[in-house]
Amino acid sequence: MTRGGAVRSLIRRFAVLALLLAATAVFALPFLWSLSISFQLPGDVFGWPIEFIPAPFTLDNYRRLWTEIPFGRWLLNSAAVAVAVTLANLFFDALAGYAFARLRFPGRNLLFVLLLATLMVPAHVTLVPKFMLLNALDLVNTYTALIAPATVQVVGIFLMKQFFESIPGQLEEAARIDGCNRFQVFWRVVLPASRPALAALAIYTFQGNWNEFLWPLVATTSSDRFTLPVGLAMFRYEFRVEWTLLMAGAVLFALPTLIIFLVFQRLFVQGIATSGLKE
């Protein structure tokens, strides 16, 4: 490479690095500001200039979360609902995806196309019918109302189907020769080989249900059934907003999904990258 080409390559690298740093700042600054507000006194929120290191520094907002409001109950509700929905999706989505990938039955392709077509229906359209159904079953303001409508997702079925089609069929044939029935092949051979896709589905499902606001707002009527997003929204009153409490709750609310993604990032990226491959 000539000296001029080396210089141009170096300039391009610095330009790309500068763009990446700028993008990182754009996404990181709101989170850092929220973190700063969570350690400020209520009267310092709108102070100017903005101070990312608050003075005075206080932990009182986090203390108030645990002592003055049922934050622990909302946290437990969110965790229970998100974990239950995630486990249900891991099983049912994988089971349905395996059926579409490996079983041959009349109308399989048509049924799969119809399932994909439901993705074009906005979630708001089904909001009222779901509520009316649960209300008729006397399930409003219960954990069942929060969990049951989300136990299966078409996106999860599609993801698992695509991944299963990339698994060599010889593995399943060997298991069948050893005497395994169809479900045993699925449970003992296919699922263990699908850990990247399962990890991607688990992260996607957990994060989606952990952040869900609209459906818990509609399906719950008492504070002991609120999830964290609904509970945090209660800090916005008619004439004022408890910004310091709201930001302290938002910081704690964001930690679980951040930790889960960092721990399982490699499996998540691998699952997404290989879900479109076929044998």
From TrEMBL:
<dbReference type="GO" id="GO:0005886">
    <property type="term" value="C:plasma membrane"/>
</dbReference>
<keyword id="KW-0472">Membrane</keyword>
<feature type="transmembrane region" description="Helical">
    <location>
        <begin position="185"/>
        <end position="206"/>
    </location>
</feature>
<keyword id="KW-0813">Transport</keyword>
<feature type="transmembrane region" description="Helical">
    <location>
        <begin position="243"/>
        <end position="264"/>
    </location>
</feature>
<protein>
    <submittedName>
        <fullName>ABC-type sugar transport system, permease component</fullName>
    </submittedName>
</protein>
<dbReference type="GO" id="GO:0055085">
    <property type="term" value="P:transmembrane transport"/>
</dbReference>
<feature type="transmembrane region" description="Helical">
    <location>
        <begin position="143"/>
        <end position="164"/>
    </location>
</feature>
<dbReference type="InterPro" id="IPR000515">
    <property type="entry name" value="MetI-like"/>
</dbReference>
<dbReference type="InterPro" id="IPR035906">
    <property type="entry name" value="MetI-like_sf"/>
</dbReference>
<keyword id="KW-1003">Cell membrane</keyword>
<comment type="similarity">
    <text>Belongs to the binding-protein-dependent transport system permease family.</text>
</comment>
<keyword id="KW-0762">Sugar transport</keyword>
<dbReference type="Pfam" id="PF00528">
    <property type="entry name" value="BPD_transp_1"/>
</dbReference>
<feature type="transmembrane region" description="Helical">
    <location>
        <begin position="71"/>
        <end position="98"/>
    </location>
</feature>
<feature type="transmembrane region" description="Helical">
    <location>
        <begin position="110"/>
        <end position="131"/>
    </location>
</feature>
<keyword id="KW-0812">Transmembrane</keyword>
<feature type="domain" description="ABC transmembrane type-1">
    <location>
        <begin position="75"/>
        <end position="264"/>
    </location>
</feature>
<keyword id="KW-1133">Transmembrane helix</keyword>
